[in-house]
Amino acid sequence: MAKLIALDAGTTGVTAVLYDEALVPLRRAYREFPQHFPAPGMVEHEADDIRRAVQVSLQELLSGVDGPIAAVGITNQRETVFALDRHSGEAYGRGIVWQDRRTHKRCDDLKAEGLGERVQQLTGLLLDPYFSASKIEWMRSHLPGLAEKSEQGGLVFVTVDSLVIQALGPDNLWVTDPTNACRTLLYDIERREWSAELCELFGVPMDCLSEVRPSVGPLGTAHLPGDRRAPILGLAGDQQAALFGQACYSEGDFKTTYGTGCFLVLNTGTQRREPAGGLLTTLALDAHGQPCYAVEGSVFAGGAVIQWLRDGLGLIAQAPDSEALAREVPDTGGVILVPAFAGLGAPHWDPDARAALLGMTRGTHKSHIARAALQCIALQCVDIVTLLRDSTGLPVDTLRVDGGAVRNDLLMQMQADLAQARVVRPADVESTARGAGALAALGAGLWEADPTAAGLPPGATVFEPQMPREEVAEIRAAWGDALRRVKTRPGPTA
Ligand code: ADP
Q1: Relative to the CA of 258, which ligand 1 atom is closest?
Q2: Residue with CA nearest ligand 1 atom 20
């Protein structure tokens, strides 16, 4: 049976997974790499650290594994950007990570100039430091010699996907795909090409960008341990890979990843729909690996709330203990946690808001707080689902879920109840790697996506909504009230 490799180059480490051609995971290897925080609000990665993590994870994955590898698929943290020598691959300084806020002021200035609307029209995104363009602009103006070097064409500004593809082969091939390009703030999502207008705005020479190739098809050759070669045939940014890995190929299909934060993505098919409340339009992939539209929202504090119960409050020893503790009580006893540890995201956009624990009485026990912690993860996702339903007109009645925190059955039941939707959890919750593996398998002609398969993935667990609607309404009203109390500025409150 043919074997496939998926490489997931994430924010904190690289995961390599070996699959058989039916996409059953056979083994995996993981290598963490260092994070650099040179100043408050700044986060950087070394290109060589990521390249090394790719090599080491592949070596571990393939040690003792014989036989050919049919194809490699890649997925990656998006928006993070590196300046590299086009011919040697050598890095100029460190890469600037998506979390980095150093270009905040510049983005605010561009917004004040009234450019936000045009940028959104072209890219589907907001003028925000999160995306690559203002980071490239910063590199060009701060790293000595970089501006000249980029004018002379000796330089490439690349996202992590291009870096990984280059690391796998000997020929310094610089390629990317639409799902990564569309996160740079330099890509026109309707024309599906780099935007000359945006490159000019951010001072990025267009010939310093990677070649955009289809997400499924030839993307280079991987030189693997054991003197083996395999074609790289699939590529997508992490959220789009997870969407594909969850079989969300068609309009109305929806997934949420519950990691440190939560990432919600709704496939809107061939039609671009304007989302409300600061959600983003992005490119995702249909059953054939061709670009389609999607709307994306995120929750800052997802599993991070559970980490806070563990590390901040010391209420639990490890994250899974949150479930047993919360199950000691039937409800939160009126306690609401608003986890605005780092402000509030969509649909509130209040960076100055801070977290609060409300509604406690003398009878409040730590189990009520644990339950409120799980509930607030679900409530934040519900606010975004509501926004998606209202702004796209799509029903969003099935939530496919993945990520580390979905192992918590209570959280999943709360999610089904509060969203009044069916929650489907696959047996393999690593949808991101699975998506990259599936794209590679599609490219190799070993596998086909079945867009009509409305059925459940094998081994899936389903959580049906059980809570009476009046109770849902009461909890959501209390949540809305609590949000109003912590917000520092008026704005939509669910
Ligand atoms: P990331 O990719 O962001 O590192 P993961 O998908 O590995 O995240 O998920 C880890 C997050 O999930 C952590 O924030 C952790 O607190 C949370 N988590 C893990 N297991 C559970 C659980 N059983 N219940 C609740 N939260 C959990």
Answers
A1: 6
A2: 405
CA of 66 to the centre of ligand 1 (A): 34
Q: Which of 33, 98, 260 maximizes ligand 1 atoms within 8 Å of its Cβ, making it the mutation to test the pocket?
A: 260
- Would the CB of 279 count as within 6 Å of ligand 1? no
Distance from the alpha carbon of residue 259 to the mean position of ligand 1, in angstroms: 5
CB-ligand 1 contact for 319 (6 Å cutoff):
yes
The whole model's pTM is what? 0.92
Please give the Cα distance from 359 to 418 (Å, whole number): 19
* CA–CA gap between residue 472 and residue 421 (Å, rounded): 12
pLDDT of residue 148: 82
Closest Cα to atom 13 of ligand 1: 303
Q: Which pLDDT value is given to residue 389?
A: 94
Q: Which atom of ligand 1 is nearest to the CA of 261?
A: 3
pLDDT of residue 493: 55
User: Strands, DSSP E only, in 141-279?
Assistant: 155-159, 175-176, 187-188, 193-194, 211-212, 221-224, 228-237, 254-258, 262-269
Amino acid at 420: Q
Question: Ligand 1 within 6 A of 445 CB?
Answer: no
Q: Do domains 3-235 and 247-425+464-494 have the same CATH topology?
A: yes
* Chain centre to alpha carbon of residue 171: 29
Instruction: Tell me, using a 6 A CB cutoff, whether residue 304 lines ligand 1.
Output: yes
- The pLDDT of residue 344 is 86
Paired tokens of 390? 């209202």
Domain formed by 247-425+464-494, architecture: 2-Layer Sandwich (3.30)
Q: What residue spans define the domains of the chain?
A: 3-235, 247-425+464-494
User: Which residues of the chain register pLDDT less than 50?
Assistant: none
| 348: nearest Cα among 239, 482, 253 | 482
Nearest alpha-carbon partner for 80 in 32, 130, 31, 117 = 130
- One DSSP character per residue, 255-279 reads EEEESSSEEEEEEEETS----STT-
List the beta bridge partners of residue 224: 228
Please name the residue ranges forming H helices in 6-156. Answer: 47-62, 104-112, 116-123, 132-142, 146-151
pLDDT at residue 453, rounded to an integer? 66
Q: The domain 3-235: what is its CATH number?
A: 3.30.420.40
339 CB near ligand 1 (under 6 Å): no
